[in-house]
Amino acid sequence: MPYVEKGMAVGLFGGSFNPPHAGHALVAEIALRRLRLNQLWWMVTPGNPLKSTRELAPLAERIRWSEEATEDPRIKVTAFEAAYQVRYTADTLALIKARNPGVRFVWIMGADSLLSFHHWQRWREIASTFPIAVVDRPGSTLSFLSSVMAKTFDYAREDESDAEVLVQQQAPAWTFLHGPRSSHSSTAIRARRSP
């Protein structure tokens, strides 16, 4: 895990990043700026239980690509989940919380993931561990109204004008951040690379 100190505000941005692209970098930059984070952990996962692993590039390659995709020194590319043999996000967040007392964390996700969030293992537990910032993605803008997660935790939604204090809120708390969007997609990039 990257080094942090008590009192820091840290964003957790996880994914397979297969491959990472400008859309991922944009989500990270928006989160850093709008949430006023000290750091953002770009967490490259060993795998995704909801996706096929046959098209998954080796972890070392995805880490290298992620490091090449980010320039901001506040972004820390890490793959600690592999070292701890953690598979599910709920377990990752529990581990982070236990090992970093006094650090304020917020889970960062693209709006495209919000639509399927209720299929994640123990998704209610995830929403109750750390605040969540959902960053707009093309084709997913209305997910903050229509997703199961948004409806379930409607009472915990913070206005995006208060985004900078989200990391100080007790979970469940979440917000939807509108802003510039990138049409890049890992799926489309892989499709173009296929013979």
3D architecture notes:
This protein is α/β, with parallel strands linked by helices and 195 residues long. The protein has one domain: HUPs (Rossmann fold, 3-Layer(aba) Sandwich). It contains 9 helices and 6 strands; from the N terminus they run βαβαβααβααβααβα. The protein has helices at residues 22-35, 59-69, 80-84, 89-99, 111-114, 123-127, 143-146, 148-152, 186-193, and strands at 9-15, 39-44, 75-78, 104-110, 132-135, 174-177. The protein has a 6-stranded parallel beta sheet with strand order 3-2-1-4-5-6. α2 (59-69) links the parallel β2 (39-44) and β3 (75-78). The chain is globular. 38% of the residues are buried. It is an enzyme of class 2 (transferase). It catalyses: nicotinate beta-D-ribonucleotide + ATP + H(+) = deamido-NAD(+) + diphosphate. GO terms for molecular function: ATP binding; nicotinate-nucleotide adenylyltransferase activity. This is Probable nicotinate-nucleotide adenylyltransferase. Belongs to the NadD family.
